[in-house]
Amino acid sequence: MHDLIIRNARVVDGTGATAFTGDVAVSDGRITAVARTSDGDEPIEGTAAREIDAQGHLLTPGFVDIHTHYDGQVCWDKMVTPSCWHGVTTVVMGNCGVGFAPVRPGTETELVEIMESVEDIPGTALHEGIPWGWETFGDYLDAIDTPYVMDIGAQVPHVALRHYVMGERCYDDATADDIVAMAAITRQAMLDGALGFSTSRFYGHIDKHGNTVPGTDATADEIMGIGDALASVDHGTVEIITDHMDNPDERAWIEYIARRTGRPVTTLVASNASEAVWDLAAQMAAEGLSFRPQVGARPASVLMSLQGTVNPMRQFPSYDEIKNLPFDEQRTMLLDPAFRARVLADEPKVSRYADTNRMISTWDRMYVLPEDLSYEPDYSDSVGGIAEAKGIHVREALMDVMAAGRPILFLLGGYNGKLERQRERIENELSVFGLSDGGAHCGALCDASVPTYMLAYFCRDRTRGPKMALEFTVHKMTQDTALLYGLADRGVIAPGYRADLNLIDFDRLALEDPQMVYDLPAGGKRLIQGSKGYLATICAGEVTFENGEPTGAMPGRLIRGGTTA
């Protein structure tokens, strides 16, 4: 007798192979049998504690999201929302060099402030929601080793590591002794179960004092010393965010890391990154080494609104008159002729950040979020395009849009009206799919929803360019992401693999509109985005969601990395 049998499913097995119709049996959290009935196999025999007739609906492995920032949220949210609403059954956190361990008692506030600045997670929520009490990375893993609705894994964050070892000197160059200490702590963290090590060399990551985060300018000696810690164990991935990938010296440095450690290296890249990045990935793959440029579903983006972290109205001095009113009253005032006249006469304030100025005043690239949630707008969707079509001032168009309450989308990374380069990069077999940033940028985006977006839009609804093959797309979000972090037990529908599965009504699959909620600890805000069409999500053989509703099952666990070599 099986625990579960799913019959008559359209199976996309995660390997990239052609879909087939068949049955899948599950026992003790593992897939025990797969019958390809469309290829002549007999249906799975026997009975089960529960049978589900899939009625031809899509069955995929659970999605493996390798780029999240749930490091604090897992302390209070065992559902790991909103990723759980989008078929995700495994997340990897601790990306971009930021996290909460190791930490010296009494210095927790410094790590919270960095996370708040870099990842836009309300510091009040982190202070109230995190119980603390740990010091080492192993202590942290022990503290979060609780039941979840999905599996979670963590990486050693360079910022926390530097802060722990160097204290107030963490913004300076590390000494030889500092490097030895960081390497030793990293090695122990790997032995305790870290899945990898992450660092930031991105100059957009600024703390509240205006400094680039610790480690941004770390020397090659420091990274090599830490890298040697990974080379001494049999697992671990290096994740790097950098804005220097077009620099030959940076690529040489990353190549050296991959060669010296023998571990996979992944770096975030924009779709318009230099071809030299992809040439390096191909060269290293030919030599049996793993350098995987990490590409997201769409360019890095910001959703701007009255409630959001980025609000274009704040640039106008007259907005100060209404900024403390309830948001409904603000929207009413945006339509008031006298108020609008004052805004039209304002001299805009200038932000100290050039990127912010660009986002809030580049009118032809500030798009009303499309009703179809394509995230692929054109000029007619822009504030500039709306103003031109209506024959009004762009500030009037801006106030109309913000009064209507729909977010304004700004797409970075050289967006040119189509996501063709994005699609091409995702379809490159050398790339790895990531950058959902689940749990982060709470007031500016909600890309934890990208698994649903990829299937519903890129595979089914897209008209502005070619669609993506369903089988390949599922592979990129399951087996491929899992293997980058050595999670070879999941991401495939085949006997012996973990029974992490999604049963999806593919025709009905859809994103819901983003909405701002205030459900974080201390009333912190965040953007969330729901979904429709998930008939069941299964983790370790247990149904965790059914028709979009949680069942209460918590079969997820903390994943601990491998053993010493």
Question: How would you concisely characterize the structure shown here?
Answer:
Helices cover 30% and strands 20% of the residues.
Give a verbal description of the structure.
- It is a single chain.
- The chain is globular, with a radius of gyration of 24 Å.
- It is α/β, with parallel strands linked by helices and 565 residues long.
- The relative contact order is 0.17.
- Strands 1, 2, 3, 4, 5, 18, 23, 24 and 25 form a 9-stranded mixed sheet that branches. A 6-stranded parallel sheet has the order 9-10-11-12-13-17.
- The mean pLDDT is 96.
- Strand 10 (196-201), helix 6 and strand 11 form a beta-alpha-beta unit.
- The chain has 3 domains: 2-60 and 532-550, Urease, subunit C, domain 1; 63-300 and 416-484 and 498-511, TIM Barrel; 305-410, no CATH class.
- Helix 4 (158-166) packs across helix 5 and helix 5 runs parallel beside helix 6.
Write the layout of secondary structure elements.
Layout: E1 2-11, E2 20-27, E3 30-35, E4 48-53, E5 58-61, E6 63-65, E7 88-93, H1 108-119, H2 123-129, H3 137-144, E8 151-154, E9 156-157, H4 158-166, H5 176-192, E10 196-201, H6 220-231, E11 237-242, H7 248-261, E12 265-268, H8 275-286, E13 291-295, E14 301-304, H9 327-334, H10 337-345, H11 354-361, E15 366-368, H12 383-390, H13 394-404, E16 408-411, H14 420-427, E17 432-433, H15 450-461, H16 470-476, H17 479-484, E18 501-504, E19 510-511, E20 515-520, E21 524-528, E22 531-532, E23 534-539, E24 542-546, E25 549-550
Parallel strand pairs: 1-4, 1-5, 6-7, 7-8, 9-10, 10-11, 11-12, 12-13, 13-17
Antiparallel strand pairs: 1-2, 2-3, 5-18, 14-16, 15-16, 18-23, 19-22, 20-21, 23-24, 24-25
Helix pairs in contact: 4-5, 5-6, 6-7, 9-13, 12-13
